[in-house]
C-alpha cells in the first residue's frame, strides 16, 4: 500500500512559500511590480500597469525596455523555479529555511533577443516562459507576452542562460 | 539642428516616465549618436547575493539610448519604436558603479533604422553588454 499523500494544503503552502521566497528576494522585480501566479508548476507573470512604465507618453505605450525586462525576468524566474521545484518536491530544500543568503544561485543571461510585435498598451501585461533546452551548463528559453488576448502577443523573446553550478561541481 | 537636438535631450529627461524612474541622464547627443548614464540604484538589483544590476535595467538603458540615437539621425525622424533588440551580456556590471551606454544609428532606410550600442561601467575595457537593434523610422511630413 502506498503512503497516504500529504494534505493538499501542506503541499500548496510549501510550493507557494518556495515561489514567494524566490521572487520576493529580487529588488528589481519589486521595482517593476511583477507578480507570479502558480498552477502546479506552471507560472504566469503579471506586470500590473503603472504610469512609471511608460516609454512613449504620446501614444501612450509601455517602454520597450520595460517589455524586455518583463520578458527576461519571466525567463529567469521560470529557470530558477524549475530547479527549485524539483529540490523542494524531493524535500532537499525546506522553503521556510530559504532567505536572501541561502537562495539557489540565479542563472546568468548570456544573450536575450526581443521581438516587438505591437506596442505595449497602458494596461496589465502577462507572460509565460517555455524552457526549450536545459542542460547542465546552458539553457535556452522562449517567452511570450500578451495583454488582452492570449493569441495576440505584443512581444516575444528568446534567451540563452548560463546555469549556476553546484559548489561541489 | 542644435535646437532640435537640445529639445530631444530635454524630452528624454522630462517626457519619458520610465527614463525618469531609472534616473537616466542623456549626456551627449548628435549625428545619429547618443550617450546615456544610469546611476547605480539598489532598487534595480537582480541578484541580491551579488548586488549586480538586473539585465532588464541594462536592456532599458540600451533601448532608450538606441532610440535617442535614431531620433538624433540626420534624417530627422518624427518618431521611432523598437522592432527588435538583441543584447549580449559580456560580464556583470560592477556593483555601485553607474553604467554608461553609447549607441550609434549606423544606417537608415526609408522606414527602418539600424543601431549598435555598448554599455560600460568604467571598470574594464570590455563592455558590460552590447546590443544590436532594428527600429521603425517615422518620416516627418514634408512641408508644402
TrEMBL record, chain A:
It holds the Pfam family 4HBT. GO terms for molecular function: thiolester hydrolase activity. Residues 62-151 form the Thioesterase domain. It comes from the Bacteria. InterPro entries: HotDog_dom_sf, Thioestr_dom. This is Acyl-coenzyme A thioesterase PaaI-like protein. It comes from Palleronia aestuarii.
Automatic annotation (TrEMBL), chain B:
GO terms for cellular component: cytosol. InterPro entries: HotDog_dom_sf, PAAI_dom, Thioestr_dom. Keywords: Hydrolase. The keyword Hydrolase applies. Residues 51-124 form the Thioesterase domain. PANTHER family: 1,4-DIHYDROXY-2-NAPHTHOYL-COA THIOESTERASE 1, BLR7284 PROTEIN. This is Uncharacterized protein (TIGR00369 family). It comes from Palleronia aestuarii.
Amino acid at each position: 500500500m502506498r503512503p497516504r499523500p500529504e494534505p493538499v494544503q501542506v503541499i500548496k503552502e510549501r510550493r507557494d512559500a518556495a515561489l514567494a521566497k524566490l521572487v520576493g528576494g529580487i529588488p528589481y522585480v519589486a521595482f517593476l511590480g511583477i507578480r507570479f501566479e502558480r498552477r502546479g508548476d506552471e507560472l504566469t507573470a503579471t506586470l500590473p500597469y503603472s504610469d512609471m512604465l511608460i516609454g512613449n507618453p504620446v501614444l501612450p505605450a509601455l517602454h520597450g525596455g520595460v517589455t524586455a525586462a518583463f520578458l527576461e525576468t519571466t525567463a529567469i524566474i521560470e529557470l530558477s523555479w524549475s530547479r527549485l521545484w524539483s529540490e523542494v518536491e524531493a524535500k532537499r530544500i525546506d522553503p521556510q529555511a530559504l532567505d536572501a543568503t541561502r537562495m539557489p544561485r540565479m542563472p546568468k543571461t548570456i544573450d536575450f533577443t526581443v521581438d516587438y510585435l505591437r506596442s505595449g498598451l497602458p494596461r496589465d501585461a502577462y507572460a509565460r516562459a517555455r524552457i526549450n533546452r536545459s542542460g547542465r551548463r546552458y539553457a535556452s528559453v522562449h517567452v511570450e507576452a500578451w495583454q488582452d488576448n492570449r493569441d495576440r502577443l505584443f512581444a516575444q523573446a528568446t534567451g540563452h542562460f548560463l546555469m549556476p553550478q553546484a559548489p561541489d561541481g | 539642428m542644435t535646437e532640435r537636438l537640445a529639445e530631444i535631450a530635454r524630452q528624454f529627461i522630462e517626457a519619458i516616465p520610465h527614463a525618469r524612474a531609472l534616473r537616466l541622464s542623456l549626456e551627449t547627443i548628435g549625428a545619429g549618436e547618443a550617450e546615456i548614464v544610469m546611476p547605480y540604484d539598489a532598487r534595480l538589483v537582480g541578484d541580491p547575493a551579488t548586488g549586480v544590476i538586473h539585465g532588464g535595467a541594462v536592456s532599458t538603458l540600451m533601448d532608450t539610448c538606441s532610440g535617442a540615437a535614431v531620433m538624433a539621425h540626420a534624417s530627422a525622424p518624427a518618431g521611432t519604436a523598437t522592432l527588435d533588440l538583441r543584447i549580449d551580456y559580456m560580464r556583470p556590471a560592477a556593483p555601485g558603479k553607474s553604467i554608461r551606454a553609447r549607441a550609434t544609428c549606423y544606417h537608415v532606410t526609408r522606414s527602418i533604422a539600424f543601431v549598435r550600442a555598448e554599455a560600460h561601467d568604467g571598470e574594464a575595457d570590455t563592455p558590460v553588454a552590447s546590443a544590436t537593434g532594428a527600429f521603425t523610422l517615422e518620416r516627418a511630413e514634408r512641408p508644402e
